[in-house]
Specification:
Pfam families: PhyH. The protein is of the alpha+beta class. 39% of the residues lie in helices and 13% in strands. The protein folds into 2 domains: 279 residues, Jelly Rolls (Sandwich), CATH 2.60.120; 81 residues, no CATH class. It has an 8-stranded mixed sheet with strand order 1-2-3-8-6-10-5-4. The chain has a two-stranded antiparallel sheet with strand order 7-9. The protein binds fe (ii) ion. The site of fe (ii) ion (FE2) has 3 residues, from loops.
Length: 380
């Protein structure tokens, strides 16, 4: 009989260790350019070329990499336009400075001073510099990777993490959703729900600085996402010790990306350099069926960036990517009395509203009015 509930007593380090001892077969992931320490390494050009010929096959390979594969991959040159990275990095510095001056910007995960953190960097960037936002999120490769794990209609949130020289490593853990909960809460979720939850979020990191090993890029334990009982295991000293012996780290270059299944055991590393500040924009991509960790005010984001979108020449793929990062892409929850499913179709999403307005060259003021009306009729 399938066991639905379980507790820490059922954890098996042997089972965990044998899952983590799997060997990566490169031929299973033909689009990867390399594999190092059981981490697949993709290259921007290869993925974009492959997606042109067979988008679905490309999505499928990336999905497998995160589920039946090692659970993590790097993408070299996720951003080929490093000016877009630097422009956002400058904004991050300005936001960190202004939040520090206001006594905010705390990071609950690290000792004060060794770490900088910007919560909801997505909205903050949109409101400060719409052009920078559009440049950053009109990245079709990022959109492809998001869709590969969580399907269409996803929602992006972003948190900047800066680890300064001397910054200490994190304890290994799993991420949102259940990675944030106490063991007694986790134990109340039926095991199938625990497994399901990892399919609702994709964890990503965009390197905003080079990340040599000494600067402490994320420590990763390939295959550990496959241990079904893992949400109760990561605080167990035996599993922590195993992680510390077997975790791997890969250096990243500015503009590279790292993506992993949120159930993968991982931890930020030690920054043992004397002078290297490691900065990443941590992307958390939520399936339209999940709840995001952060609340983003998409109306404010769209009002901020719409004028920049109007004046910009973007390819269809770039436009799709930036709209996917800025507006809600899912019709529900809504008020079906006032926002009915006309003609049997799902009610219009914010993303459809923006795309339609852009196609009609609708002035910003008129767009804002439509957006407000759209919001109003969706309220209960
Ligand atoms: Fe994490």
């Amino acid at each position: 009989m399938t066991q639905i509930y379980f507790n820490e007593e059922r954890l098996s380090l042997d089972d965990f260790a044998s899952l983590c001892a799997q060997t990566l077969h490169r031929q299973d992931f033909p689009l990867a350019r390399a594999a190092e320490k059981n981490v697949l390494i993709y290259h921007r050009d290869d993925l974009l070329t492959a997606a042109k010929t067979d988008r679905q096959n490309t999505l499928a390979e990336l999905h497998r990499a995160l589920s039946s594969g090692p659970g993590v991959f790097a993408v070299q040159g996720l951003y080929d336009d490093l000016a877009a990275i630097d422009r956002s990095s400058n904004l991050f510095e300005a936001i960190l400075a202004s939040e520090a001056a206001n006594g905010g910007g705390g990071d609950h995960f690290a000792k004060a001073g060794s770490n900088g953190r910007i919560w909801n960097a997505l909205q903050k960037v949109a409101e400060r510099d719409a052009e920078a936002f559009v440049e950053y999120y009109s990245n079709p490769l990022l959109a492809l990777i998001c869709e590969a794990w969580v399907g269409p209609g996803y929602e992006i949130t972003a948190q900047v993490n800066q680890v300064r020289p001397g910054g200490k490593a994190q304890q290994p853990h799993r991420d949102y959703h259940l990675g944030f909960q106490l063991n007694e809460v986790v134990a109340r979720f039926p095991l199938p729900l625990q497994i399901l939850s990892q399919y609702l979020t994709l964890q990503g990191a965009v390197a905003h600085s080079d990340m040599p090993i000494a600067s402490g890029p994320t420590q990763l334990l390939p295959w550990s996402q496959q241990y079904a009982e893992g949400y109760l295991a990561w605080r167990d000293p035996r599993f922590i010790a195993f992680f510390q012996q077997h975790a791997v780290q890969l250096p990243l270059k500015k503009g590279d990306g790292l993506f992993f299944n949120p159930a993968l055991f991982h931890a930020a590393g030690n920054n043992v350099t004397g002078d290297h500040i490691r900065t990443a924009n941590l992307l958390q991509v939520s399936s339209s069926f999940g709840k995001t960790m952060e609340k983003v005010n998409h109306v404010k984001v769209l009002e901020a960036i719409y004028p920049a979108l109007l004046g910009k020449k973007l390819s269809a793929a770039q436009l799709q990517a930036v709209v996917a990062a800025s507006g809600e892409g899912y019709s529900f929850p809504t008020n079906l009395d006032t926002d009915p499913p006309l003609g049997g179709l799902v009610p219009k999403t914010q993303q459809q509203l923006v795309l339609e307005a852009l196609q009609q060259d609708c002035p910003a003021e008129e767009f804002n009015a439509r957006l407000a009306e759209h919001e109003r009729k969706r309220e209960a």
